[in-house]
Amino acid sequence: MILNVIQDKKILFSIGSIIISIVVLYLKYLAWYTTNSIAFYSDMLETLINVAAAIFGFIALLIAARPADADHPYGHHKAEYLSAAAEGLLVLITAILIFYESWQSWQHPRMPNAPFIGIIWNGSAGIINLIWSLILINAGKKLCSPALIAGGQHVLSDVWTTIGLIGGFILIPLLDLLYLDAILGFLIALNILRMGFHVIKEAIDGLMDKAPPPSTIEHIHKIVEQNAPEALEFHMMRFRKVGAVLFIDFHLVLPGNMNVYCAHQICDRIEYALKQSLGSVSINIHVEPEEEKKS
């Protein structure tokens, strides 16, 4: 039930991302259409990829929400990482396209039309993106969603792009710097490239079952110690984070003369404490007799 609620919230945020990205795309299209600027064109192209990424994210969350089945006994949560990886690849493709267009503009520089009207349209889109990116990142952390966090970080990078773009764009008509339009396009492409590599790295870490942060691991150790005072030792503890779920498995060494019922109670106590503290977790405890103690 808890997982269903979490996934429902993720899907609502994903739908919101699609709507927001389309609104922002329209505003940036107006900025480019008004000015015929290569910098605003580059910014609009990045937002077009945001729309595609939001749609991919929505599809991934629908897949991730499906319950475990015979073919996928651990669930479908990794679909979120595939969405994040696809978004990273789209970002890299966008950067290449912008590099090309910026190079064309560098060879044939021109003064943008009505630059200040374009700034108004682009700035409005930036404000909307800033608000939505903070909402997405905060929601992604609370819901343990790599897809929402990746989407929020991507949108936030777009905000920084907008700030730098507007700041530089103001100088074009004031100082008659025709080449600055192409330079801004190059800078946007570099920023997009940086963000794309970051998003792909995060997705690969998830697909490769990277362990949670050391602070989380230390917290888990303390919970096990506090809720299993009868245990002689626990070892071979392993973790993997898959979307909203943290998988934990370890060996718990108990006195050899302890009966099965008592051992089962201890395991239940540990599992309850971990779920209360960490939320969505899947725990597998292998009970061993004292002869298996490692230290």
TrEMBL record:
<protein>
    <submittedName>
        <fullName>Cation diffusion facilitator family transporter</fullName>
    </submittedName>
</protein>
<comment type="similarity">
    <text>Belongs to the cation diffusion facilitator (CDF) transporter (TC 2.A.4) family.</text>
</comment>
<dbReference type="InterPro" id="IPR027470">
    <property type="entry name" value="Cation_efflux_CTD"/>
</dbReference>
<feature type="transmembrane region" description="Helical">
    <location>
        <begin position="147"/>
        <end position="172"/>
    </location>
</feature>
<feature type="transmembrane region" description="Helical">
    <location>
        <begin position="84"/>
        <end position="103"/>
    </location>
</feature>
<keyword id="KW-0472">Membrane</keyword>
<dbReference type="Pfam" id="PF16916">
    <property type="entry name" value="ZT_dimer"/>
</dbReference>
<keyword id="KW-0813">Transport</keyword>
<dbReference type="InterPro" id="IPR002524">
    <property type="entry name" value="Cation_efflux"/>
</dbReference>
<dbReference type="InterPro" id="IPR036837">
    <property type="entry name" value="Cation_efflux_CTD_sf"/>
</dbReference>
<feature type="transmembrane region" description="Helical">
    <location>
        <begin position="12"/>
        <end position="32"/>
    </location>
</feature>
<keyword id="KW-0812">Transmembrane</keyword>
<feature type="transmembrane region" description="Helical">
    <location>
        <begin position="115"/>
        <end position="135"/>
    </location>
</feature>
<dbReference type="Pfam" id="PF01545">
    <property type="entry name" value="Cation_efflux"/>
</dbReference>
<feature type="domain" description="Cation efflux protein cytoplasmic">
    <location>
        <begin position="212"/>
        <end position="290"/>
    </location>
</feature>
<feature type="transmembrane region" description="Helical">
    <location>
        <begin position="178"/>
        <end position="200"/>
    </location>
</feature>
<dbReference type="InterPro" id="IPR058533">
    <property type="entry name" value="Cation_efflux_TM"/>
</dbReference>
<keyword id="KW-1133">Transmembrane helix</keyword>
<feature type="transmembrane region" description="Helical">
    <location>
        <begin position="44"/>
        <end position="64"/>
    </location>
</feature>
<feature type="domain" description="Cation efflux protein transmembrane">
    <location>
        <begin position="17"/>
        <end position="208"/>
    </location>
</feature>
<dbReference type="InterPro" id="IPR050291">
    <property type="entry name" value="CDF_Transporter"/>
</dbReference>
<dbReference type="InterPro" id="IPR027469">
    <property type="entry name" value="Cation_efflux_TMD_sf"/>
</dbReference>
